[in-house]
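One such shown below:

_____
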Amino acid sequence: MTRPTGSGLRVTVFTEDRVRDFLSRLDELVVNGLVILDECEVIRYVDREKKA
């Protein structure tokens, strides 16, 4: 998923192969910037109702 943000471009990929494939496209698009490749753990909280 590619989405513009206020400060640039955010790309979400789900497998290492997709990340590696996207890097060649990124080289064509970006003049300067930083790419960080690292495993991470994501915890997402979305519109949860508080229990009384």
Observations:
- The chain has a mean pLDDT of 75.
- The CA atoms of residues 21 and 50 lie 41 Å apart.
- Helices lie at 16-29.
